[in-house]
Amino acid sequence: MSTTPVRVYAARLVGLPIFDPQGDQVGKVRDLVVAVRSEVHQPRVLGLVAEVFGRRRIFVPMTRVTNIDSGQVYTTGLLNMRRFEKRPTETLVIGEMFDRTVTISGSDVTGTVYDVAMEQARNRDWVISRVAMQEAAKGLRRRGQTHVVEWRAVQGLTGREDQQGATHLIAALNEMRPADAANMLHDLPHERRRAVVAALDDERLADVLEELPEEDQVDILEHMDSERAADVLEEMSPDDAADLIADLPPETAATLLGLMEPEEAEDVRRLMSYVENTAGAMMTPEPVILGPDATIADALAHVRNPELTPSLAALVYVCRQPLETPTGKFLGVAHIQRLLREPPSTLVAGALDDSMESLRPEASIDEVAAHLATYNLVAAPVVDENGHLLGAVTVDDLLDHMLPEGWRDRAVSK
Q1: Structural domains of the chain sorted by starting position, each given as residue range(s) with its CATH number in brackets
Q2: Residue 168 pLDDT more than 80?
Q3: CA 133, CA 112: separation in Å to the nearest integer?
């Protein structure tokens, strides 16, 4: 441990790669686990919560950590791959300490925790030694004054706090990919999870909800007021929203659909009308759709949208008016690779592939898989018997439905 810094801050540890002795990355740091005995004794750092490949979260004891530097963590390589389960006597630093209200002893200075530091004691144990706190903003200041104090100098880090905020935990979650943020949310105690859900904005919560196991999705939605739940569903992709609404009690589902914007609710209802695990049920009703008079430049501008998944950005669907699904007559698709080779001023109709076979909405999941595999596609159009485009099935839609039920839950709990 000779090269390990004297003091390590928790917020800087999160996201760092973890390497084995051979230099191979085995995971990433997601949190610290500490044992808080009292406000007098420094909490002992028991270990790290690490996310290994496959989105599994495991516990790495500090006795297995051989070195920590500014960019990585090294271990002995002898890791127990059993899923991490927090014990009642343990506390998660990022998940449960951040945003606690604390007071500096002997003063009236109160603020919220935004970081903590750990150091090695003489007996080589790691302990929490410093607390970084921020006062509430006063007067014209946009941010309150910050303090970094000894652990023993603060009160309020032990026991339960019913009104604990979530500002700094939200900041940490917003730095993560939605799937990683979903994993952290999944591991939080129920009360803490609800505080975080309340503080997340609707768009970010929708992204995270799409990555959570079905049970977590339903639990979160059922504890939200109906108006906000409907707003979050509107921010989700229609196929994911349809899957989630289908898991709710019929009365709740009907209430939320009634509160959603009519156009958004119509897309969801249409998806729910198809038989489960068919092309119609799993398709995305909002692919990139253009008219034949659009230019290559128009098409490239649409597929540059950062909110599109790579599979949705791979094809442009060309239809006659109307261009909202179900569209007018479906004419064909334009592949992104072909678009990149054509002059920007050329009409997209000139780059049309009208030989691609379409899927019917009643096509089974096996038929969809065979279609994508046969033609080496990452997406395919779904067209009704009258030649109207209904949506597109992407390879990620297919995988979501082909994987076993509850696969997200197993991904974080194995």
Answers
A1: 1-145 (2.30.30.240), 167-277 (1.25.60.10), 289-401 (3.10.580.10)
A2: no
A3: 5
pLDDT above 90: residue 306 = no
Burial 24-55 (b: 16+ CB within 10 A, else e): eebbbbbbbbbebeebeebbbbbbbbbbbeeb
Show the tokens assigned to 272: 């729910």
**56: phi then psi, degrees, rounded to nearest 5:** -85, 140
The 10 Å CB-count burial string (b at 16+, else e) for 339-362 is beebeeeebbbebbeeeeebbebe
Token digits for 382? 């779904």
Q: What pLDDT digit, counting tens, does each position of 244-260 carry? A: 999 899 999 999 999 99
Asked if pLDDT for residue 50 goes beyond 80, the answer is yes
- 319-378 pLDDT tens trace: 999 999 999 999 999 999 999 999 999 999 989 998 888 999 999 999 999 999 999 999
Q: How far apart are CA 185 and CA 209, in angstroms?
A: 10
pLDDT confidence of residue 170: 84
Q: Which residue has the tokens 């768009």?
A: 203
| Cα distance between residue 355 and residue 352, in whole Å | 9
Quick check: 246 and 240 in contact, CB under 8 A? no
How many Cα atoms are found within 13 Å in the side-chain-facing hemisphere of 402? Answer: 15
Q: At residue 28, does pLDDT exceed 80?
A: yes
d(CA 368, CA 380): 9
Taking a C-beta distance cutoff of 8 angstroms, is the pair 116, 128 a contact? Answer: yes
Closest listed residue to residue 83, CA positions, set 30, 39, 40: 30
- As a whole number of angstroms, the distance between CA 134 and CA 144 comes to 6
